[in-house]
Design a protein that fits this description.
The protein is α/β, with parallel strands linked by helices. 28% of the residues lie in helices and 23% in strands. The two termini are 30 Å apart.
Amino acid sequence: MEEKKEILRVENLKKYFYTPGGVLHAVDDISFTIKEGETLGVVGESGCGKSTMGRTILRLHEKTDGKVFFQGNNIFDYNKQQMKALRKDMQIIFQDPFASLNPRMTVSEAIAEPLLIQKVFSKKQKEELKKRVDELMELVGLAKRLVNSYPHELDGGRRQRIGIARALALNPKFVVCDEPVSALDVSIQAQILNLMQDLQDELGLTYLFITHDLSVVKHFSNDILVMYLGQMVEKAPAEVLFEHPCHPYTKALLSAIPIPDPDYPIERIPMEGEITSPIDPPKGCRFAKRCPYADSKCVGEDLELREIEPGHFVSCCHAAL
């Protein structure tokens, strides 16, 4: 079987925000790779830097330091013209399907917009443009009768399908999915996730899938990256992470997944203690104040991410299989 090619490589990516109170370390020294046609799930609590990382990878935010290589090229070396061309290959599905759509645009106008901006079609090519919009609506399961509807007339699931259609309009290779189902009802979440998986199989898409819901990424991701306060604390193949979590934070997250069977034995791991401030954080493990195993080794010096088995990385001096 032919080995998949690497499509994205992130090296020591940092994104800091400079505030009157100090420097906020939103993304701090993140490195990973994704291969073509695969999904990397990114999980962690709200505020851990997941979305900021995704947007910085797409250069919607300018990086503080580090490199992002897409198909071998560092995108932070690109000029404006090159970045505009790159938008065809790198796209994003936003978390809030209502806020990401122009309320004054109909469904067809919203889907057609990226095609016009990138000059795939001109406004004079009405028939060709309409045909492509119809194809995209069919691809994401939107009924043609909705073509002249406005976002406020549609439910969350249909609005998110518009967002997916817009993201796929230019035939991208890589898509950042920024919590694409968190704002939707559970029944609609399943529909959107199934749609995205079908589209990945059909179109060979590569996903960076950001979520705070571990139960979602378990069956959707090849690898899972766990973030805490801007740092990567663990990364492993999905099955390995669920069977052998090594970082105390990962274990606590997994123990919080709701189980529908009330008689199923599970030990909840509460996270107690003060959360370290992401503004000018001290050196050492940022989870130490909430970790039951923390000792003097965990403070004073930043911990290295080490590989404890093939493909399984963890940043913890107490981690063991």
